[in-house]
Amino acid sequence: MQNNANEVAATTKVEQSPSNFKVILNEFRKDKVAVVSLILAVFIILAAFIGSMMFNVGGATEVNILDRYMAPGTGGYILGTDEGGRDMFKYLFFAARNSITIGISVALIIEFVGVVLGTISGYFGGWIDAVIMRLVDFWMIIPSLLVIIVLVTIIPQYNVITIILIMAAFYWMTTTRLMRSLVLSEARSEYVMASKTSGTSNFKIMFAGVLPNISSLIITDLTLTIASSIGIETALSFLGFGLPMETPSLGTLIGYASNPDLIFNRWWVWFPAVLVLLTLSLSINFVGQALRRAADSRQRRG
């Protein structure tokens, strides 16, 4: 009778513990802002990539001085033209695509490095943990923004891939620390101890046992890292230390706002890029916050 009661209690507990997907779904059902944000973020990302495939990059960046600074809706230009007579509507698609590509690529590299190093550091502890954390501490005291500006200045020819690698090289430390703290607590749990006792390899425990249990937190961190990476790239391009001016990006378009005459008299050159950036960044952040609440709820449920 006692065994039957325990089995029923265990079964009930399993049934009452929803999956990660259900917890996330329930959180989004309660948060309408997160739902709208998710729709907007997906729409902007898809529009950027699909739109850039529909238009020829040569046509979007082609200079036509005769159509210089045409207002939106005139001459067949939906969003007007810039000082080179480039179609801002087409140009915006390529700018958004490049910025989003950089943001997602940087975030994926950061997350990969952070998860691997953080997992190894938190799981093994001891001298391995000490070495990795000292490396993180050293890297964090480096003025990353200043070093990035110097690297971009001294590199003769740089492009999207160069910017991705440079940014990823200086922004992986926070994720590493986060993953280390998460794995540190998981490494002392009963299921890890049981796996070690049964002779399961450390690699399998780390990447098949521990990581799936913190996957929701990894996804949350990845989402927020994408938003911050897009913002950093935009800031660098705005300051003139990101992508070259001839390469479309949201930052290079917003950089036109540094000209007082363009701020008010030629607002269509920079304002659409600001609108896309703010909408995308806020949407991703709201989605990330919803995922974080879902992860916290999952942890409280056990």
Query: Could you give the order of the helices and strands?
Result: HHHHHHHHHHHHHHH
The CATH architecture category equals Orthogonal Bundle
Instruction: Note the main sheet.
Output: none
CATH class group: Mainly Alpha
Counted by DSSP, the helix tally is 15
CA radius of gyration: 24 Å
Q: What overall form do the CA principal axes indicate? A: elongated
CATH topology tier name: MetI-like fold
Question: In terms of structural class, how would the helical and strand content be classed?
Answer: mainly alpha
- Low-confidence segments, given as residue ranges, are 1-15
Content of β-strand: under 5%
Q: What is the typical, i.e. mean, pLDDT?
A: 84
The number of distinct β-strands equals: 0
Helix content: over 70%
- Name the CATH superfamily classification: MetI-like
Kindly report how far apart the N and C termini lie.
27 Å
| Number of structurally distinct domains | 1
Organism: Lacticaseibacillus paracasei (Lactobacillus paracasei)
Domain ABC transmembrane type-1: 96-288
Protein name: Peptide ABC transporter permease
Transmembrane segments: 33-55, 100-124, 136-155, 161-179, 267-291
Summarize this structure as a short list of keywords or feature phrases:
about 300 residues, mainly alpha, MetI-like fold, 15 helices, disordered N terminus, MetI-like, membrane
